[in-house]
Structures are given as C-alpha cells and as structure tokens.
C-alpha cells in the first residue's frame, strides 16, 4: 500500500488540477456571447465607416473606442485564453455541433477524474489510468452518437428549409434576404446552425463564407454544396432557386436510399453490437459482483498482462466490427 501512495497522490493532484480547470472554464463560458457581440459591433462599425473617416475619427467615437478597448482587454484576460481554447477545440473537434452545455462537459470531466482516483486507490495508478481511458472512450462514444443523431435530424430538416428559400427567391427576394427570412422559426438542431450563420452575416455579408464556416463546424458536405451554390450565384448570377430546388431533391433522394440501406443492414449491425458489447458487459459484471476475484487477478503480474491484452483485443475487435458493419 505504501508503494501505491506516491502514484495515488499524483493522480489526486492531477484530478484536483483538472477539476479546477473545468470549473474555471464553466465560470468563464457565459461571457463568451458578450465578448462576441462586442467584437461583432466593432467589426460592423469599422465596415460602415469609410476608410479615411475611420482612421481620422476613431477617437471621436466613444462607442467604437470602448469596444476596441474591451476587445484589447479581453485578449489579455483569462476569458481571452478561454476564447482561444474554444476556437482550437472548435477547429479540431467541432465542439459547437455537439449541443452539450459547458456545465455538462465540466461534470463529465469531474466524474471521470473521480472514477480514476477511486480506481487508483483500489488497484494502483495503472488501474486508475485504465479506468480513465475506459471512461473517456465511453464518453467519446456517447458524444459521437449524439452528434450523429443531430446530423441526421439536421439533414432531415434541411430540404424543408431549402424549399422555403426557393419560394422566397421565386417571389423576388435575393438569396441573402431569403436566407434571413427563412431562418426564423427553424427548429433545432438546424435552427442552431443557421443562427450561427446569420450571426456571422451581420459582420460580413457573405452567405457563401457563412455556409463554408458551417461546413467546417458540422463536417457536413451539404453545407459545402450550399456554400458553392451561393458563391456561384453572387459571382456569376443565374437562377439560384432552381439550383436550390435540385439540391433539396438530391438530399431527399439520398436520405431515402440511406433509409433503405439502413433497413436492409439491420441484422448485420445488431450482430455487431451484440458481439462488441457482450465481453464488456460480462467483464463489468465480474468486476462489480466479485471484486476479490478481479483484484487477485489484477495484482498478479501475469493476470495483469492478460487483462491488458484482453482490453486491447476487445478494442481492436470492436473497431473491426464497426468497419464491417459500416455501410456507406
């Protein structure tokens, strides 16, 4: 027990540090929208003013001067650090598309650290790291499933939104104006994504660029297709309503084909789920119902190697079953 004390203390210190970071991120998250509105106000003010007047009259405009000072202060405060961290996570992970509040992310992180500390107290630092890795994989799987469901629901709502835009363009509105009018009363998750695009349009009125940003956030090629349509409409003109109507029909046809393939492959996917989850469920029941048996096996050197090898083989088998059952 004395040999495990230093590792346990190190894990406890790391857990407290990461928990403090998670709570700090949650405390600073609610200020993100306020800083974003200040920056968008500054950008609109700079776009509206002529270039010469903007350079000469910046000191006579207290609103712009206050916004600039607020933006400069925010870049040097902890909130600026959180904004840069959020931008990094958004660029690499698309965190805004998850639909999870910062409070829930902080609670998930705190729960994982608590589980790792408890496991380290029972079986050492290696068992704590293994429990933390298993918890991270479980949370990642849950986030992936949630994101997949949100993307599927968004694609189901997208053709109806495009039909509304086609009707508004047909009666004489521009694509930009039709987008602004059709965004209202769109349910989530499509409404949340389009509200982000509408907010970016207030600073830079480029619909193609706004849809391109949505493609990077949500990792959906349909948004990239719409961005190309809007860029072509702005650059070369033409009947954007006809192109949007064909895009809507294409999305509906593809969704129909995917539903048919989903129904035909239901047996294969169910078999893959059962084969992947059965060893995990059986191992978890053994650890919960008979802890002494598992701890005796874990404290033995050969038994520990067998447990780690079984975990690695289970991860490899689950990945292979996923690749076999994944039909596109």
Automatic annotation (TrEMBL):
The keyword Membrane applies. It is a multi-pass membrane protein. The chain crosses the membrane at residues 6-27, 100-119, 125-144, 272-294, 306-325. Keywords: Cell membrane, Membrane, Transmembrane, Transmembrane helix. The keyword Cell membrane applies. It is found in: Cell membrane. Its main location: membrane. InterPro entries: T2SS_GspF_dom. It holds the Pfam family T2SSF. Residues 161-287 form the Type II secretion system protein GspF domain. PANTHER family: INTEGRAL MEMBRANE PROTEIN-RELATED, PILUS ASSEMBLY PROTEIN. This is Type II secretion system F family protein.
């Amino acid at each position: 027990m004395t040999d495990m004390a230093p590792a346990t203390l190190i894990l406890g210190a790391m857990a407290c540090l990461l928990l403090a970071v998670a709570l700090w991120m949650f405390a600073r998250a609610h200020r993100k929208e306020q800083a974003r509105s200040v920056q968008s106000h500054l950008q609109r003010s700079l776009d509206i003013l002529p270039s010469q007047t903007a350079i000469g009259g910046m000191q006579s405009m207290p609103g712009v001067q206050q916004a600039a000072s607020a933006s400069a202060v925010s870049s040097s405060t902890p909130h600026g650090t959180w904004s840069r961290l959020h931008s990094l996570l958004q660029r690499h992970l698309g965190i805004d598309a998850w639909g999870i509040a910062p409070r829930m992310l902080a609670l998930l992180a705190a729960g994982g650290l608590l589980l790792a500390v408890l496991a380290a107290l029972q079986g050492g630092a290696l068992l704590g790291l293994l429990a933390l890795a298993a918890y991270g994989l479980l949370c990642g799987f849950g986030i992936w499933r949630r994101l997949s469901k949100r993307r599927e629901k968004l694609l189901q709502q997208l053709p109806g939104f495009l039909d509304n835009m086609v009707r508004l363009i047909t009666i004489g509105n521009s694509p930009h104006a039709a987008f602004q009018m059709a965004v209202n009363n769109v349910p989530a998750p499509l409404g949340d994504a389009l509200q982000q695009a509408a907010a970016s349009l207030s600073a830079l009125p480029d619909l193609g660029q706004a849809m391109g940003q949505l493609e990077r956030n949500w990792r959906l090629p349909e948004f990239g297709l719409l961005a190309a349509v809007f860029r072509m409409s702005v650059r070369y003109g033409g009947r954007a309503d006809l192109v949007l109507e064909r895009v809507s029909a294409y999305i509906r046809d593809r969704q129909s084909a995917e539903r048919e393939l989903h129904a035909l492959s239901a047996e294969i996917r169910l078999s893959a789920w059962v084969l992947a989850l059965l060893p995990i469920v059986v191992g978890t029941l053994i650890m919960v119902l008979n802890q002494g048996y598992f701890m005796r096996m874990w404290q033995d050197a050969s038994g520990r190697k067998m447990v780690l090898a079984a975990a690695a083989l289970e991860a490899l088998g689950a990945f292979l079953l996923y690749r076999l059952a994944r039909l596109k």
